[in-house]
Amino acid sequence: MKINVSEIRRSHGLSQKLRLEDWGSVAELELTAPLEVDLKLTHVGSRILVEGTLQTRVRLACSRCAGDYDEPLEVRVEEQFLPHDSPELPQGEEFEVEQLCIFTYENDLIEIDEVIRQNLVASLPCRPLCAEACKGLCSQCGANLNEMACKCEVEPRIDPRWGALAELHDRAQSGTV
Ligand SMILES: [Zn+2]
Ligand SMILES: [Zn+2]
To answer: Looking at the CA of 130, which ligand is closest?
Structure first.
């Protein structure tokens, strides 16, 4: 979506709102609730600041039990746009805008899609959990322990030092010592 900022570009300090109840889809994310966009674009110096929040739910796979679940996302956005020909941008062949964490715009039109996509993706948890108390999968039979208790025995962990002592005890009992 392109946002025309020619109005606020007329004077410093002017701002405009971008409010949407349902943004639509975002590549690579499975949204399970409408994406609510509440952003304010402000003309500050040579830049356009984009601030506000994004709210939705996204379908993720739990890192413990591998089950799908919905993660609520509420993301705080703070980004900046510079005109594509701004002298503030570094010049040169090697230069890539993405590395600056700054966006550029042309002809008074701001492309907001990438801002929204990047902010949502960056807010995803590194280790998604369907619930804080998720029991995960049994390491032996693979059963989902949230759904059932499997019959696998928890292996008794014998301290090897006690193991040696127990062996001595057994030999003493059988008269081989
Ligand atoms: Zn889980
Ligand atoms: Zn099991």
So the answer is: 1
Report how far residue 67's alpha carbon sits from residue 71's, in angstroms, rounded to the nearest whole number: 12
Distance 156 CA to ligand 2 centre (A): 15
CA 145 – ligand 1 centroid, Å: 9
At 117-140, the pLDDT tens digits run 999 999 999 999 999 999 999 999
Q: How far apart are CA 20 and CA 156, in angstroms?
A: 57
Q: How far is CA 85 from the centre of its chain?
A: 32
Q: Separation of 63 CA from ligand 2 center, angstroms?
A: 18
pLDDT confidence of residue 9: 93
56 and 33 Cβ atoms separated by less than 8 Å: yes
| Percentage of the chain exceeding pLDDT 70 | 81
Please tell me the pTM assigned to this model: 0.78
- Going from the Cα of 139 to the center of ligand 1, the distance in angstroms, rounded, reads 14
Cα of 36 from ligand 1 centre, angstroms: 27
- Ligand 2 centre and the CA of 50: distance in Å? 51
Q: How far apart are CA 54 and CA 84, in angstroms?
A: 26
Pick the ligand that lies closest to the CA of residue 152.
2
pLDDT in tens, 86-120: 888 877 655 565 556 789 999 999 999 999 999 99
Tokens of 41: 């674009």
